């Protein structure tokens, strides 16, 4: 009985972390930065534009 409750709590905790991670990821992809040099969307992982090398 107690074990079942712990399993449920664990499942909820893991599920919550997964949902928040996915939400953060989707929000990041929904609003990409735009390069001032060439105007293309640059992912946040890049410090410089892969197209023209300009710092974003
Ligand atoms: Zn660029």
Average pLDDT, rounded to a whole number, is: 85
Largest sheet: 2 strands, antiparallel
The fraction of residues assigned to DSSP E strands is: 5-15%
Which compounds are bound in this model? zinc ion
Specify Rg, calculated over alpha carbons: 19 Å
What's the total helix number?
A: 1
The ordered string of helix (H) and strand (E) elements is HEE
* Helix-residue proportion: 40-55%
The helix/strand class is mainly alpha
**Spatial order of strands in the largest sheet:** 1-2
Separation of the first and last Cα atoms:
55 Å
Work out the number of β strands.
2
Task: Give a brief description.
This protein is mostly helical. Helix content is 52%, strand content 7%.
Provide key terms for this protein:
2 strands; binds zinc ion; 1 helix; 56 residues; mainly alpha; two-stranded antiparallel sheet
SSE topology:
Blueprint: H1 2-30, E1 33-34, E2 41-42
Antiparallel strand pairs: 1-2
The chain binds zinc ion (ZN).
Zinc ion is lined by residues 35, 37-38, 40, 49, 51-52, 54.
């Amino acid at each position: 009985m107690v074990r079942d409750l712990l399993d449920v709590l664990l499942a909820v905790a893991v599920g919550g972390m997964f949902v928040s991670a996915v939400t953060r990821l989707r929000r990041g992809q929904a609003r990409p930065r735009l390069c001032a040099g060439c105007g293309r969307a640059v992912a946040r992982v890049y410090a410089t534009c892969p197209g023209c090398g300009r710092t974003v």
